[in-house]
């Protein structure tokens, strides 16, 4: 081995490299010169057996040759990588396309559909009544006369249009109970109504939205009593949350039901321990009770012959109490942050 041979090795390698026109061939080239038995590797090993002076001179020359070849290999690699796209046909017919993202129903729409499906087998039919209505149907016909302090609880938005002689002012319905008397006035008995609609109240915090949904059940028939109400609420809760979830009824005072209750479910966020959402382990889902005879009379129904029960719950609150949702602030539901909504 001498300097001339080292020089020849360089020339041969660069000539070979010139002919390389693909990444596969480049790899073959690397193996030919730098693989275990490659030409450069073998010469490097040979040098070890030479005398000190020769070793020094040839070693330096060989190192230079190696770095020239490796530098050229690197440039060749970049050049080949760049040219690859232009080597491909413009359009692969068989290449799977990128699927456009398809959205899905809003979580509250999904919840509404689930609620409807649970009540349907019991004979409840979904109805809708105006979301902007007379205060007559919102309060008066529900046994809450004008100036009665109970009206304050509904923190109502009033619409700035003139008052009607008979029906009073116009409001954004603060609850779906406004549909009760409207349903009765249709005159179809017995009644099994499920009124799901948007409501509005002057409220906003972790548990309150200015606009939210309620679902209102109303049953009017002969011989209806409180055990039917409890049976229906239990049936709903077991189907919506699962057999292990419990509800509790707290006595309350609604002017349109007697007796009246507020219905709570064990909080899914803290499982009864108490958290910022529920405060004391239970979350209020809504109200319920036996329809007040006066309300039946407003609806043109003979309260001696017929009786009924009603309940009105918030859809968002009810949904939030499903296990695993871990929604600790009701306002997330309508903040329209896609990262949040995508999870459901
Ligand atoms: C009522 O609205 C009664 N109409 C319920 C009723 C119907 C009682 C039939 C008896 C017979 P309440 O104001 O408690 O009751 O509201 C019921 C539920 O609506 C609440 O428990 C809650 O789940 C939901 N809700 C009320 N206000 C808001 C709000 N601002 N944001 C979100 N949900 C709300």
Report on this model:
- This protein has 344 residues and is of the alpha+beta class.
- The chain folds into 2 domains: 3-83; 107-341, BirA Bifunctional Protein, domain 2 (2-Layer Sandwich), CATH 3.30.930.10.
- 38% of the residues lie in helices and 22% in strands.
- It is built from 11 helices and 10 strands.
- The chain has helices spanning 3-19, 23-34, 39-48, 52-87, 107-119, 135-138, 178-185, 226-241, 293-298, 315-320, 338-341, and strands at 125-127, 132-134, 157-164, 168-172, 191-200, 211-221, 247-252, 257-266, 282-291, 307-314.
- Strands 1-5-6-10-9-8-7 form a 7-stranded mixed beta sheet, sandwiched between helices. A 3-stranded antiparallel beta sheet has the order 2-4-3.
- Strand 3 and strand 4 (168-172) form a beta hairpin.
- Helix 1 (3-19) runs parallel beside helix 4 (52-87) and helix 3 (39-48) runs antiparallel to helix 4 (52-87).
- It is rod-shaped.
- Residues 175, 177, 201, 203, 208-209, 212, 214, 216, 254, 257, 260, 284-289, 310-314, 316-317, 330 line the site of adenosine-5'-[phenylalaninyl-phosphate] (FA5).
